[in-house]
Amino acid sequence: MKLSDAKATLTFSDGRPSVELPIYQGSIGPEVIDIRKLYGQTGMFTYDPGFLSTASCQSAITYIDGDKGELLYRGYPIEQVARKCDFLDACYLLLKGELPTAEQSREFHKDIANHMMVHEQVRYFLRGFRRDAHPMAVLTGLVGALSAFSHDMHDVSNSEHREHAATLLIAQIPTLAAMAYKYSRGQPYVYPDHSLSYAGNFLKMMFATPCAPYEVNPVLERAMDRIFILHADHEQNASTSTVRLCGSSGTNPLAAVAAGVACLWGPAHGGANEACLNMLETIQREGGVAKLGEFIAKVKDKNSGVRLMGFGHRVYKNYDPRAKLMQETCNEVLGELGLENDPLFALAKALEKVALEDEYFVERKLYPNVDFYSGIVQRAIGIPVNMFTGVFALARTVGWFAQLNEMLEDPEYKIGRPRQLFTGSQRRDIA
Ligand code: CMC
Q1: pLDDT bracket for residue 156 (50, 70, 90)
Q2: Is residue 371 flagged as an active site residue?
Q3: Does the global pTM surpass 0.90?
Q4: Is 154 a residue whose pLDDT tops 80?
Q5: In whole angstroms, what is the distance from residue 362 CA to residue 333 CA?
Q6: Taking the CA atoms of the chain, what radius of gyration do you get in angstroms?
Q7: Catalytic residue among 109, 154, 234, 313, which?
Q8: Is the CB of 273 under 6 A from ligand 1?
Q9: Is 260 a pocket residue for ligand 1 (Cβ < 6 Å)?
Q10: Which of 10, 166, 218, 382 is at a distance of 20 to 30 A from 97, taking alpha carbons?
Q11: CA gap 351, 296 in Å, rounded
Q12: 3-state helix, strand, coil in the chain (%, to 5)
């Protein structure tokens, strides 16, 4: 980051001396006012619950221009990454900063394939869960449990160890997610297959059984790969900030990522894809397109507690570029499976149109986000609704590692320790 010539001056209306604060410039995007010395100089904290105006770190990985609706991975527009790379090349880009050469790409694909099989003891962990447990609860537990298998190999101060942790979990998370699904169905686990792609492996581990040969459908494979690319990183969102904060204590990197999985589960974040599909199914059950007006009225009524899931974003105040790409994939997958007239897809398109023309959404700049169409694609592929967020976690694992490693390599990194505005009781004594 570059120190700007300009400075910010903080003045007080009650005669306290004013304070000068440095301003830093990034390569693109808003400048930041450096308040690190503010407490020392004034005895005051800043107050920003929800981080509406706070840059929590400097980062060179992912850039979002929320007004333009632009998303860049290491400078490359998401549209180009989605159309020209496969997921593992996108992982390499996010982790290392540059796209791999052909040789580097081959090595990276091989390395990931070689690590996909999980320790045989992982199946005993699964046995402890109820068969109807939510897959995100299972996945949070399994990712945390992996830290028990390799703690001695994961010293966070060692960059090679960190690279190993990233390779290990990027490779094993599809296996873990598929095992969680197979367990819920009471079906045998399917081992990874070195002859298949990363996305192809996930599909096979999810849907193959020992009773019949399984052939990966290339359209569904490509769709899965695209879902992974679109969810791979999204700068300092809630789960990534959780991973950074958790990892800032120097904990095991797999344990830090388990904290990210837990955070992602919530319906305001990664859980929105599941909530969105449940919402569409409820509207469909209650009358479909004819009932959209009633549903939108409920969404606009603040007392109803109903939100239009898959709409709105803290950063995007324009169409989420991932939603456009997801809609494209949705058309391809439904076409391949002969589901062009899928009633839920038709309902989603009608709902999107109504919302985009409604003053409430226009005024607040609420547009479809990535989760609006991803559930429809996943459902068409055969992924059960309660697994959708698990697929998001699978894809986001690379982003969590890229961000965690960037933080640990930052010479300015410190343990995260926010302060507070205390509003509780002053000191008192027990009578
Ligand atoms: N439906 C109805 N009203 C909404 C919605 C929505 N989906 N999103 C925002 N609003 C309204 C909100 O009520 C508020 O209105 P007012 O100014 O009158 O009080 C205004 O828009 C601003 O909303 P906010 O809650 O202050 O915005 P935020 O930045 O804190 O929340 C959000 C962002 C994503 C949590 C929110 O838009 C939301 O709950 N969306 C639905 C859940 C969802 O789709 N989440 C997935 C996000 S993308 C995937 C990911 O990155 O995890």
Answers
A1: confident
A2: yes
A3: yes
A4: no
A5: 30
A6: 23
A7: 313
A8: no
A9: no
A10: 218
A11: 9
A12: 55, 5, 40
